Amino acid sequence: MISKLNHVAIAVPDLDAAITLYRDVLGADVSKKADLPDHGVTVAFVNLDNTKIELLYPLGESSPIISYLTKNASGGIHHLCYEVEDILKSRDQLLEKGMRILGSNEPKEGAHGKPVLFLHPKDFCGTLIELEQV
Predict the structure, then answer these.
(1) Rg value, the chain, Cα
(2) Phi/psi of residue 84, nearest 5 degrees
(3) Is 3.10.180.10 the CATH classification of the domain at 2-133?
(4) Which of 85, 106, 109, 130 is labelled catalytic?
């Protein structure tokens, strides 16, 4: 079902500082910021040869990232994103196996303009998992 790691998402309390850290201190290529209102976040991607790091910052007062940052004021790893060929087929297989999908069970458009789903962390060793169709 899953193929490769697409990105590791890190929630950050200061997006500009995180961009500066990755760009100026680590010398990484960092994308421009993009607002994702459907997900309640502003993101920037650190582009690496073998994967990406997604820097997440709350967008609006109802952002799910706010509660994460309340518990983890310095930020931290928020989720892992794996690629799948067919998100609907993957969803159906996961539901058949008793796994929980967050939200309505219907994919939303993700940061890369592709369909994504989030899997309940209690079903995956305490880790929030995002699946992205490639």
Answers:
(1) 15
(2) -135, 155
(3) yes
(4) 130
Per DSSP, the three-state class of 47 is strand
Q: How far apart are CA 14 and CA 58, in angstroms?
A: 10
Q: The tokens of 1 are what?
A: 């079902």
83 given a catalytic annotation: no
CA distances (Å), origin 32, targets 20, 27, 110, 118: 12, 15, 16, 24
H/E element holding 71? helix 64-71
Q: Is the CB of residue 119 less than 8 Å from the CB of residue 128?
A: yes
Distance CA 57, CA 71 (A): 14
pLDDT digits (tens, 9 = 90+) for 61-92: 999 999 999 999 999 999 999 999 999 999 99
Task: Select from 13, 74, 72, 82 the least CA-distant residue to 52.
Answer: 82
* Domain boundaries defined on the chain: 2-133
Give 39's DSSP letter.
Answer: T
Distance CA 47, CA 52 (A): 5
- The confidence band for 7, taking pLDDT boundaries of 50, 70 and 90, is very high
Contact 134, 83 (CB under 8 A): yes
